[in-house]
Amino acid sequence: MKRRPFIKNLGSLSGALTGLSFLSFPALGSEKEKSLKLIKSFQETQPVFKFITASDGHFGQPNTDFVTSHQNLLAAIKRESDVDFVVFNGDLIHDDPVYMPEVKKVYDQLTLPYYVVKGNHDRVSESKWQEIWGQPADYFFPFNSKQGVMILNSSNEAGDYRCVDLEFLRLGLEESSKLEQVFIFIHISQNDWTRHGVDCQEVLDLIASYPNVKATFHGHDHDVDGLMWDQKKPYFWSGHFGGNWGNPFPSYRVCQVDESGKVTTALKRVSDGQILNAHSV
Predict the structure, then answer these.
(1) 195 neighbors 224 (Cβ within 8 angstroms)
(2) pTM for the full model?
(3) Structure confidence by residue, pLDDT tens digits, 190-209
(4) How many CB atoms lie within 10 A of CB 175?
(5) What are the residue boundaries of the structural domains of the chain, listed by start?
(6) Which of 32, 101, 208, 278 is 20 to 30 A from 17 (CA-CA)?
(7) How far apart are the first and last CA of the chain?
């Protein structure tokens, strides 16, 4: 476990680097070349399945222009083509429950399906969450005959950081075990490899035990926007698109699957859609 402090620093460093052009770092050599190849691969993919995930809008946070940040994200999403759905991965609002119906009105401007993940600043009861969004905080479903989606709650009405419900996760993974690919969305990282993660080894072990879990996506850490691995499973972050701290570039993540089942994903800047990093898993 002595490696974790290094990993935390690396996560913060990667978040800072991705805000700059790869061409600004000629000393990176082969790493720069690899990054550019991954970006090209992402751009050339013809997806048969594609989704967007964005996190930490913090609608209603004082002293922030949360209305503009949300409209900017919606404009960026609308520029993307062939998107099957969007996942807003937690911290939809900033503490005050009065803003939850308001942010729903904003999301409802989208013309494609979307799903929501409960974050630590989404301080409403489970019953209120269900009433507003029409979906439970813990939720799994097959999106089509090949891909499944699992949404897991990692907080509560008090805003505590928590491990997800292990039994619900086990049930969902078992129910989804015949699908080719499953994508998991959890606001708070279930490992303390970031400054704001929690140590939930049983969750990581369970995810690792199902071969069809293709990737897990987190929010919460506004200054982390890359990839980390545990037991050969990839965990992705998307930075943030709202709030008052973190990376200086609001961002969102696109994930796509081609006919062969290959998954590529890219972090994009909200303002202009520029790819900041890309990965293949």
Answers:
(1) no
(2) 0.91
(3) 999 999 999 999 999 999 99
(4) 15
(5) 4-280
(6) 208
(7) 25
